[in-house]
Each structure stands twice: as structure tokens, then as C-alpha cells.
Amino acid sequence: MFNSLRHLNALRAFESAARNRSIAKAAAELHVSHSVVSQHVRNLEDWLQVPLFERHSNRIELSEDGKHLEPQIAYGLQILSDACDNILRLSQSGTVNISAEPAIASRWLRKKITDFCEQHPKIECNLRSEWRTPSIDEDQVDLIVHFEERLLRSRTDNERLFPIDGFPAAAKFKVPEDFVANHTKALVDIPLIHDNGRHIWQHWFTEFNQDSTRWNTGKVHSDLSLAIEAAIDGEGMVLADAIICARELASGQLVKTDERTIRCTWYRVAIDENTPSNSASIVLRDWLIAEAQKENFTA
User: Fold this and answer.
1) Burial (CB count within 10 angstroms: exposed 0-12, middle 13-18, buried 19+), residue 151
2) Fold classification of 95-298 (topology level)
3) So what's the pLDDT on residue 289?
4) The domain 4-90: what is its CATH number?
5) Which intervals hold domain HTH lysR-type (predicted)?
6) What does pTM read for this prediction?
7) pLDDT value at position 2?
8) What's the pLDDT at 92?
9) What is the pLDDT of residue 139?
10) How far apart are CA 286 and CA 292, in angstroms?
11) Which partner from 56, 124, 260, 271 sits 20 to 30 angstroms from 100, CA to CA?
């Protein structure tokens, strides 16, 4: 075994080249030169005394021996990676102070943070819900989750989590028994509920019903969380989405009144530009991005 591990870098180079079917892509992935990957592969072939690739003018294909070796090496490297990640996960420590927009804070992020802390027992996370976007370098905040249009104006390192794809929805008891989805009657008879201004409903009507000025009517709430609660209580129809409103849609508290959907915005996660790469904030940020990728949305 120890003799084999002497060739660990060569095995990594082979696995990457085999998976990508390209020496150049493997070099980019491993952050080394094309010649380094080629030399690793040749060294591995010399040691095993078999060709692992069939080389053509501008491409490579796995040989029969290479096809046999690839899945076993990939499996072995994954075991090594998982073992190291598990030790890191249990040993990483620190405190992360999080500020989040109210809707995502209560309807998605709180539970995710609970799961994260169970997996990272030495990292403490403190979550506060607030509409305003704090200054990450002045307000004792390590990580912010908010709408894209608010974070793009901040001096932070921020990345997308998932979008809000909005469709009309209302409380089930508010919808008439003879209701038909996508029917104009629902848009006329049920009042509109807005969050933080009327621009989102205006966007929806501009896209699907340009002649209507109904977007200019209805109650305006200060944030999305309040607007969703108002819709659940039967006050009117809100532009809901399948992620933030997942629980209410699944339970039947909210029902779609129209299938037509617009992209309202994205949620982003932000940290300070100068955050050390091994900090707890980076660990949480990367974990949240991975969790967001599990949601069913189109980029």
C-alpha cells in the first residue's frame, strides 16, 4: 500500500484527466501545467507497465486498462477526501454572526443553520433577522443573506444562493370553489398583497397582462415575510415561490392561482472581502451554497 501511495499525485492526475477526458482540463483543475499532468500520467503508466490512455492528435481516450482503473481510483480518492473533510468538519471552530432578510431567515436559513451546527459542533452561529442591509465591517456581522439588488451595492464578496421565481398564490379558503387556475377572475376578485413596494406585481402584470393597472392596488407590507403571512391569513394574493413558501404550498395553506411565473430576484450570501480562507464564515458560506444547489431551480 505504501508503495502505491508514493504515486498519489500521479493517481490524482490520472483520475482528473480520465474524468475530464482531457490533460488540459485536468491541469486547470489541479492548478498545474499541462506538462506536469502528462508527466504524472507517464510515470504512472511506467510503474503499472500498461498504457492508460490512447493518445490521438488532439484528444485522449481511456485504454481498456484505464477504464478498469478509473472507477477504483475515483472511489479511493473520494474515501480519502471524505475522511479528511470529516476531521476538518469536527475540528473547525469559531463564531459566525449572521444577518438575514426576514423571509429567508425564518423560512429557510434558520433550519439550515441548525443542520450546519449539528455537523460542525465547534462552530457557533448567531442569526438575526432584519430588513436593512448592515455594514459588514462596522456592525459586528460576519455573513449577510439578502436580496441581490441590495448586496450588489455593498463592498463584499458575495455569491448567489437561489432565485425567487414568483407566481400568484392565496390562502386556500380565499379561493372560490369554482376557481380555475390561470383564470382572469382570480386576478380580479382577490386583492393583491405587496412587499416593499408595488414593483414586483407591476413586473408580473407587465409580463402577462399589460393592459391591467391592478398592480397599483392592494396593501403594501414592509417585507416579504409579512406579505406571505398576510396571504396565509386570507388578506389577499401574494407572489409566492416554491422555496421560501414550500411549507405553506405543501400543506395547502397557500395555493397557486396562476402558473405564470416571473423571476423576482436572487438571494445572495456575502462575507467580508478580507475574510481568511480558513475562517468559520467561509465554511458556512460554502455549505449554504452547496445546500442551495439542492433546491429545484433553473439558473
Assistant:
1) buried
2) D-Maltodextrin-Binding Protein; domain 2 (3.40.190)
3) 95
4) 1.10.10.10
5) 8-63
6) 0.70
7) 47
8) 66
9) 73
10) 10
11) 260
Question: Which amino acid is present at 175?
Answer: V
Grid cell 379561493 — which residue? 175
Residue ranges of the chain whose pLDDT lies below 70: 1-5, 85-93, 178-188, 299
